[in-house]
Amino acid sequence: MEQDIQEVLFSKEYLDQTVRELGSRISRDYEGKNLLLVSVLKGSVVFMADLMRAITIPCSIDFMAVSSYGAGVKTSGVVRIIKDLDINLEGWDLLLVEDILDSGMTLSYIREMLQQRNPKSIKLCTLFDKPERRTVDLNADYSGLNVPNEFIVGYGLDYNEKYRNLPYVGILKPEVYGG
Ligand code: IMP
Ligand code: MG
């Protein structure tokens, strides 16, 4: 895998530090609340696993899996649920945990859908953000690191289902894309 990486953007230590800071902010803000972390598989599992351990107040977790309608082309963000949440959201302070916020279309749709299940509150936490790529009006309440408009892999993020297990985040060499 290493030889496919052009440049390391964020080291494991830097990511650890960023996640610890997000965890402390969330722990402070959600003190006394009914915190439920929800993430959409699969990209955010690594972040979720580290973030939950950086949170020092009681919290629960749940996961959902979705697939975009239509193949290939950029979708409208409309998704089909492959695996729904186990937990009924009523009464929970929901925090959506995302790996990376890009166009924001998928998450915007999911947020709308979960809002209709009457959680007590709903907020959004993303580790990485590409703000200039946004096509919908959606902003993270907790955002870790802004990233340049490049395709990054590692720490859960994939290219063709590969590189998720890299402990750091890097930019792929263009030749890996066949470019
Ligand atoms: P959005 O609906 O355009 O915001 O899509 C966000 C999703 O696209 C993320 O959850 C990732 O799965 C994927 N994605 C966007 N940018 C990258 C990247 O640089 N590397 C890996 N996956 C990415
Ligand atoms: Mg992906």
From TrEMBL:
Q: Name one GO molecular function term.
A: nucleotide binding
Recorded superkingdom: Bacteria
**Keyword Transcription on entry:** no
The record's comment on protein family reads:
Belongs to the purine/pyrimidine phosphoribosyltransferase family.
Organism for this UniProt entry: Hydrogeniiclostridium mannosilyticum
Could you tell me what reaction this enzyme catalyses? IMP + diphosphate = hypoxanthine + 5-phospho-alpha-D-ribose 1-diphosphate; GMP + diphosphate = guanine + 5-phospho-alpha-D-ribose 1-diphosphate
Q: In which pathway does it act?
A: Purine metabolism; IMP biosynthesis via salvage pathway; IMP from hypoxanthine: step 1/1; Purine metabolism; GMP biosynthesis via salvage pathway; GMP from guanine: step 1/1
Matching entries from Gene3D superfamilies are given as: 3.40.50.2020
Give the Enzyme Commission number.
Answer: 2.4.2.8
Where are the membrane-spanning stretches? Answer: none
Which NCBIfam families does the record cross-reference, listed alphabetically?
HGPRTase
Keyword field: Cytoplasm, Glycosyltransferase, Magnesium, Metal-binding, Nucleotide-binding, Purine salvage, Transferase
Identify the gene encoding this protein. hpt
Q: What is this protein called?
A: Hypoxanthine phosphoribosyltransferase
User: What GO terms describe the biological role, i.e. biological process, of this protein?
Assistant: GMP salvage; guanine salvage; hypoxanthine metabolic process; IMP salvage; purine ribonucleoside salvage
Its localization reads: Cytoplasm
Q: Which residues form the Phosphoribosyltransferase domain?
A: 13-159
Cofactors needed by this protein, per the record, are: Mg(2+)
Q: Does Endoplasmic reticulum count among this protein's keywords?
A: no
Cellular component (GO) terms are:
cytosol
